[in-house]
Amino acid sequence: MKALVYHGPGEKSWDSVPLPHISKPTDAIVRVVKTTICGTDLHILKGDVPAVTKGRILGHEGIGIIQETGDAVSNFKKGDHVLISCITSCGKCEYCKRQMYAHCEDGGWILGHLIDGTQAEYVRIPHADNSLYHVPPGEDEEALVMLSDILPTGFEIGVLYGTVKPGDIVAIVGAGPVGMAALLTARFFSPSEIIMIDVDESRLSMAKKFGATKTINSACGNVAEIVLAQTKDGVDVAIEAVGMPQTFDICQNIVRPGGHIANIGVHGKSVDFQIQKLWIQNITLTTGLVNTNTTPMLLKTVESKELVPGNLITHRFTFDQFLKAYDVFGNAAAEKALKVIISNT
Ligand SMILES: [Zn+2]
Ligand SMILES: [Zn+2]
After folding, report:
1. CA of 103 to the centre of ligand 2 (A)
2. 209: closest CA among 304, 311, 313, 301?
3. What gap in Å lies between CA 66 and CA 32, rounded to an integer?
4. Mean pLDDT lowest for which of 69-73, 159-163, 168-172, 305-309?
5. Which pLDDT score, from 0 to 100, does residue 268 have?
6. d(Cα 40, Cα 229) in Å, to the nearest integer?
7. Ligand index nearest the alpha carbon of residue 41
8. Of the N and C termini of the chain, which has fewer Cβ atoms inside 10 Å?
9. At residue 180, what are phi and psi to the nearest 5 degrees?
10. Rg (Cα) of the chain, in Å, rounded?
11. Ligand 2 centre and the CA of 108: distance in Å?
């Protein structure tokens, strides 16, 4: 089969590799129909995730058809149409019992990280009963690819951990795919304002279409001063969806007393946490890796059209154009790319 293989920092290729096989009775083999590229894949290619070794097939998102199941898989059978979760969960360990699937003792984020991933014609899914979801009949496959990772990530780690409430002022720093997912799902709770902050004008104009009430281009001055001037004393919830010291700083400078900073960004460096100012402000700071425990709920909101995640897709490719898809996603600003879909046709 063909697959996108990591060959060390800066090196990848579209290779012929052996087909995956059932290695445990709880496994399923899925024929990948549609997949995408995540910002995390770009981090891996830069060499920021040393746990990923040479020869690894990347990717942790996708939709497919079950090809084969192990003897212990009971929820799925050959031919079933499935959504692949970016998080693998055994369903039995202490963390799984607490719905903290991100920390599953025999799973978590392993696809395209510690085991071969979804940017391939076929993928082995461990603990298939707990790590796959049935695709509702007639649903838009492309839209559902957004449920593998970005929508649950924006919703759980941004909106729920940030405890967005009706009437809140919410600021989202970073209008990339996960920031946009936080924007779309923050609207479930009817905040009075959603302020989107980014350096990219085309992403800010997309954010307006998705329901941002205000946008601020952080290249145009001191964002914290602008936010404080436009609010009584800051925001109730500041969602960090970039992962840099400067963007974390914006969040800690705009959060109001009693507010929440919800960090989603993948940080490669330490930040300067202003505890000497914030100790008296009754704020909460949360961090996290997505658990995907909200995926069944999000599926229902997509079915009811409350959530229309297909709008996040800007570019489409076929599997033989995989390297081109990486070029476009890797130059997102110049290409005006948000999410790309790659189809196995
Ligand atoms: Zn991802
Ligand atoms: Zn577990």
Report:
1. 7
2. 311
3. 9
4. 305-309
5. 83
6. 35
7. 1
8. C
9. -65, -35
10. 20
11. 8
Distance CA 5, CA 16 (A): 9
Find the 39 Cα to ligand 1 centroid distance in Å: 6
Contacts 24+ apart (CB under 8 A), 230-234: 230/195, 231/169, 231/193, 231/256, 232/256, 233/257, 234/169, 234/259
How far is CA 213 from each of CA 112, 170, 177, 181, 183, rounded to the nearest angstrom? 36, 10, 18, 15, 10
Q: What's phi and psi for 63, nearest 5 deg?
A: -125, 145
pTM value surpassing 0.85: yes
Ligand in nearest proximity to the CA of 127: 2
Sequence letter at residue 307? L
Q: Find, among 302, 330, 329, the residue nearest to 316 by Cα.
A: 329
Share of the chain above pLDDT 90, in %: 97
Give the closest residue to 328 by CA, choosing from 318, 319, 340: 340
Pairwise CA distance, residues 45 & 6, whole Å: 7
Ligand nearest to the CA of 42: 1
Tens digits of residue pLDDT in 136-193? 999 999 999 999 999 999 999 999 999 999 999 999 999 999 999 999 999 999 999 9
Please tell me the distance between residue 180's alpha carbon and the centre of ligand 1 in angstroms.
Answer: 14
Ligand 2 centroid to Cα of residue 243, in Å, is: 27
At residue 258, the pLDDT reads 98
Residue 14 C-alpha to ligand 1 middle, in angstroms? 20
Cα–ligand 1 centroid distance for 249 (angstroms)? 24
pLDDT digits (tens, 9 = 90+) for 222-264: 999 999 999 999 999 999 999 999 999 999 999 999 999 999 9
Please, are residues 67 and 92 in contact by the beta-carbon 8 Å criterion? Answer: no
Helical H runs in 56-136?
94-97, 128-131
Residue 66 CA, ligand 2 centroid: distance in Å: 22
